Amino acid sequence: MAAEVVGRWSDPIILSNVAVHITLLPNGKVLHWGRRVNPKAPPRNANELTDMDSLNETWTRAFVWDPVGRGTIPTANAPLGVEGQTINIFCAGHAFQADGTLFIAGGHIIQDGHGIDASCTYSYKTNTFITRPRMNLGRWYPSVVTMPDGRLLVTSGSFNGGYEINNISQVWDPAANAWSEVADPRSQVADAGRILDLYPRIHLTPQGRCIMIGPQARTVWFDLKDPTTGADIQTPVKDQAVLGRWTDANLQREAHFRDYCPSVMYEPGKLMYIGGGLGGNDSGAPTNDVEYLDITSGNPQWTKSPAANMIHRRRHFNATILPDGSVFVNGGSQGAGFSNHNDPMKIAELWNPATKTFTEMAPEMFSRCYHGTALLLPDGTVISAGSGEYGGCGPSENHLEAQIFEPPYLFRGGAPRPEILTFPEEISYANQFTISIFAANKDIDKVTWIRLGSVTHCRNMTQSFMRLNFTQDQVGTTLTITAPGNSSICVPGHYLLFAVDTRGVPSIGKIIRISNEGRPAAVPAGPPPIPSIFAKMAAAITTPAPRTVQPTLSEQAEQLRISQNRPPVVVAVTPACPYGLGPCWGGAYDALSRISDVEVVSPVPNQPDSLAFVYIKRDKMGKPAVMLPDVDKWRKELSETVNASYEMRGIEVTLKGKATLKGPVKNREGLKFTVKEDHTGGDEVVVRLAPFEQKSQLKWDVESQAPKMVTDVERSAYGKLMNRVTRVWGDGGLDVRVSGTLQKQGDPAGGFAIDVREFEVLRGSYIPWF
């Protein structure tokens, strides 16, 4: 179709790396970096898709690409940690500070899911990275949001080899060059608390509040300041104070858990959550649902309708606000699985804010699945780049190739494209300023204001859009524009200003900085790192390992274990995310908490075996709601929250009771088990005991994505228990504690069996000497 209808893609542009992270700088150039130096490294053996060793490099090579001259240069230095060591800022979070420097939090070390505690800034003026103080713990996949006062909120990310989510957010203060700790949402959000998901979809609203809208379905508010006094909200913990307050918004998206998808604030206070996730349909593919929330209305509610959905299902894609207010959607995988490179979606779509409908655009040449990125450029085009590195893809799917999309508005005939001739480089809030335009551009319909983008993993952490009020003089060559009124609706920093004519054709954007008071004082750079052993020794003394004031999730899990004083039910859960249950935990935790029989979930899962631990509800007398969980019911309730993003493999229970023979000793027909827990309320629950076989195994191997092999100890447990029971005089049986996989025998009337993985003979039970 014609370019004025579906737009046009450029010929390929070869970048210097897979642009997993991409940012439009205040000088109009594009900073980007990937995972490793050589993304085309071939596998070293036949069992690998790529060179696995190089996936975990501990350094970064970043580049700056010029959209005008199309040339690329490396950054003048590489990011370093506080001890002068190189760091890899792959899988970090990033957003702009008020002075235009890019703040970067976290990154990658050792393996996927293991975040670093480093932070740094990048200066577009000097093309250099500057080391900043360490965070409280590591962060792999954190989100970063610039706040109205110029500080930055950093949330989530995993650490400790991917075993744990960093649930304790922090606030970075560029002026003080220092961190402050934020209240743990688990201490404030009702209904069992909140564990943050990776790269949470969090936005700043016009009220100065942050709103978290995904990947989990529940919407949550975060307030850094008291709305009445304007002072920081502080809660005393030990001898210090933590900042902010989390509250449940009592709103929930209908499409439930949706990860690896974008969310967009397409106008101040108006949000859309687009596609993503898995399941919710017969094929297990991602959704095309789009859900909308207008927090400026009197009674905000999530809404959706088939007419307002995307045309195509997709996940691992991007959504970019264009100068005319439309939203350009491109890339992604449309097939089942984490990132289905064999079933990419190359057809782009354009969303119309007036009708809330999508229209197909021209298809791009390359697949843009996991780690694909898209970024608005000053000339109103969009660069589409990245994809690959890793997520199960080989070197051929690691795309150095980028393409530029020219939207349909660039091909509308008639008058010349609007052109801004003069403009101020800096403005102040609520003040008026003027720009001059080319004499032939008299029909200006709107002036739009878009913050410079910074993109990774479907998340544009800095994107925002608003329309500015303006008047045009009688000659038509001068526009008097009113700057945004405050820093809640428009945080301090650099923006693209566009003049859009009545045809919807935008000018080339001009980059303007907005601030409350001139240019801020230079942020302290700190001493440059000295590459010597003495510098590392000094760093060890002057930069002690940070420590959270509040307990980490591991510490909370241990406190819960002690307080419960009973064995948990072990739930085997597999995430579609290939990095294991540890980092990909937030959605599973939320879903397990919602199972009707569950009282509380341990806040940390077992990452090596992909197991979660839950405690069943009890009545006032301590009697459990269910002695033997209905596996089918639990699976159904889990899937209602997370769709196909997680799979429940099974359940293991640990129960006390009496093991007896089902028939005469000589027949050895098997064992039955009568549950005798302390609070059964007199109810007798009898189950069949069975051998633990490979099909019983719930422990999961993350790397092979298959159950672990049953050990000899596990396989022999049932036989050893049988021998113990047959040696007991009479038919009184043996008092034991049994742990094993719970098997449902057909319908509920068919009863249950436990495949015995281990057992313990209880004290006082009679055991013969022979």
UniProtKB/TrEMBL annotation:
Location of the Galactose oxidase-like Early set domain: 417-514
Name the InterPro entries on file.
Gal_Oxase/kelch_b-propeller (IPR011043), Gal_Oxidase_central_sf (IPR037293), Glyoxal_oxidase_N (IPR009880), GO-like_E_set (IPR015202), Ig-like_fold (IPR013783), Ig_E-set (IPR014756), Kelch_1 (IPR006652)
Keywords for the protein's UniProt record, in alphabetical order: Signal
Q: Which residues form the Glyoxal oxidase N-terminal domain?
A: 289-388
Q: Does the keyword Signal apply?
A: yes
SUPFAM superfamilies in UniProt: E set domains (SSF81296), Galactose oxidase, central domain (SSF50965)
Xref: Gene3D superfamilies: Galactose oxidase/kelch, beta-propeller, Immunoglobulins
User: What's the short name of a Pfam family annotated to this entry?
Assistant: GO-like_E_set
Matching PANTHER family: LOW QUALITY PROTEIN: ALDEHYDE OXIDASE GLOX-LIKE, SECRETED PROTEIN-RELATED
In its UniProt entry, what is this protein called? Copper radical oxidase
- In its UniProt entry, the species of origin is given as Rhypophila decipiens
